[in-house]
What does this fold into?
Amino acid sequence: MYAIIETGGKQYWVIPGEILQVERLEVKAGEDVTFNALWTASQEDKNAAPGKSPSAKVTAKVVRHLRGDKIIVFRKRIKKAYEKSSGHRQELTELQVKDIQLS
It folds into this structure.
């Protein structure tokens, strides 16, 4: 069974038990969060066709909050004596997918 969820402006393919990192969510560590599934499919039920299920929910547990790797941005204009360097570290939330409920 798998589902596709959307959070932080991105879509993620999730399966139960999977751990994934998404953009920071305003939820405390250890709490559960629920997402609406954009798309679901089940391996067990061969009669059910994969597709949109308006009532499908994905439940996940917030494992921890962390920061991603530092990304260095460097800009330079040749022959203009212009150099600019900056960095960025994305705030992330680590989720463990607990369950996918179809309806």
